[in-house]
Design goal:
Blueprint: E1 8-10, E2 13-15, E3 19-21, H1 41-52, E4 57-64, H2 81-96, E5 100-106, E6 134-135, E7 149-150, H3 153-172, E8 177-182, H4 187-192, H5 207-210, H6 212-224, E9 231-236, H7 248-260, E10 265-269, H8 287-296, E11 301-303, H9 310-318, E12 324-326, H10 329-333, H11 337-345
Parallel strand pairs: 3-4, 3-12, 4-5, 5-8, 6-7, 8-9, 9-10, 10-11, 11-12
Antiparallel strand pairs: 1-2
């Protein structure tokens, strides 16, 4: 039996295989008006195709817990009931195909208010539907980015509450798994890393202080998220800096803290918090970070990072480097990657009745 096509159970949720889709922003929601942040036809077709293609778990793209938490004006959100109702259309279809629906809850922090990537991704102001970003410290992400407003303690607590409210809405929208976005230089990652967190109060300085906000978010979400449903956390395992950044050692230590606070799986990525970091990109380049967490802690992990071939994915699981693999760009290229991999590896995967001639 192929390891890639074994089921995987966390709490009371069983995922039909280990081929998972990570959150990948589509930047395709309305930027203002009653449909702001609402998933539309593009989002439905995008996720439905991957579910029909046999993907076991789909994590819907970074979905903002507030309008100011969006990466771009065109991001999805889950701060109102109109958004919830639109998401139900997606989750119902995913479940009908045997796919487990998950959602990533996010706040972009100092990397908010940027344009769509295919338009350059530069910061936008009010004339481009933009707003003033916030962050743990008044330190811009890069040259040409605005200086963010430093969050007050009261504002930090408000955002913690927004994550909890978003989790309640995610449950109402039919999602079986929630993931907290703590990676890629967005708000939670900004608090974790000394590179971006220059605070001198209870939310900055020491490791315990820098992880305080993240753990408060986890606790708030876990409190409203049902005990029978899993909660994931996505982390950048390293800032890829020689000093003054978040490190792999920090990630291993933090994984144990996350486990104690009710996180069921660590989605292990890297980078995104330091604009000038040099990242040695190549096939499977982030897998060793997931493998280390799995080897040194009791927390299950999912691996990401240029995983493209069926045999490559199978080897990662068979070697015990991860419990599941997340394929991003490859699933953009090929929505039916799971079905093709099952044919290559001799695994079983859901095939819609309408596609029976393709088996």
């Amino acid at each position: 039996m192929s390891a890639l096509f074994e089921t995987y159970t966390l709490r009371d949720v069983t995922i039909p295989n280990r081929v998972w889709m990570p959150p990948m922003c589509q930047y395709s929601a309305a930027p203002l008006g009653p449909d702001m942040g609402v998933p539309g036809d593009w989002h439905f077709a995008h996720y439905a195709a991957r579910a029909a293609g046999g993907t076991g778990l789909i994590i819907v793209e970074a979905t903002a817990v507030s309008p100011e938490g969006r990466i771009s004006p065109y991001d999805l959100g889950i701060w109102n009931d109109t958004q919830v109702e639109a998401f139900r259309r997606i989750t119902r279809f995913l479940v009908s195909q045997g796919t487990v629906p998950a959602i990533q809850l996010a706040h972009a922090g100092r990397k908010a208010s940027t344009d769509q990537p295919w338009k350059g991704g530069a910061p936008v102001g009010p004339d481009g539907y933009g707003w003033q970003p916030v962050a743990p410290s008044a330190v811009p992400f890069a040259d040409g980015h605005p200086v963010p407003d430093e969050l007050t303690v009261a504002e930090i607590q408000e955002i913690v509450g927004q994550f909890a409210d978003a989790a309640r809405r995610a449950l109402a929208a039919g999602f079986e798994i929630a993931e907290i976005h703590g990676a890629h230089g967005y708000l939670i990652n900004e608090f974790l890393s000394p590179y971006s967190n220059r605070r001198t109060d209870a939310y900055g300085g020491s490791y315990d202080n820098r992880t305080r906000f993240a753990l408060q978010v986890v606790d708030a979400v876990r409190e409203v998220w049902p005990d029978d449903k899993p909660l994931f956390f996505r982390i950048s395992a390293t800032d890829w800096l020689e000093d003054d950044g978040w490190t792999a050692d920090d990630t291993v230590r933090f994984a144990a803290d996350l486990r104690a606070h009710g996180i069921d799986l660590l989605d292990v990525s890297t980078g995104g918090n330091a604009a000038g970091a040099r990242i040695p990109v190549g096939p499977g380049y982030q897998v060793p970070f997931a493998a280390r967490v799995k080897a040194e802690t009791s927390l299950p992990v999912a691996a990401v990072g240029l995983i493209t071939e069926a045999e490559q994915a199978e080897k990662i699981l068979a070697n015990g480097e991860a419990d599941a693999v997340l394929l991003g760009r490859e699933l953009l290229r090929n929505p039916s990657w799971a079905r093709h991999a099952a044919r290559e590896l001799g695994g079983d995967v859901h095939v819609p009745d309408q596609y029976h001639r393709s088996v």
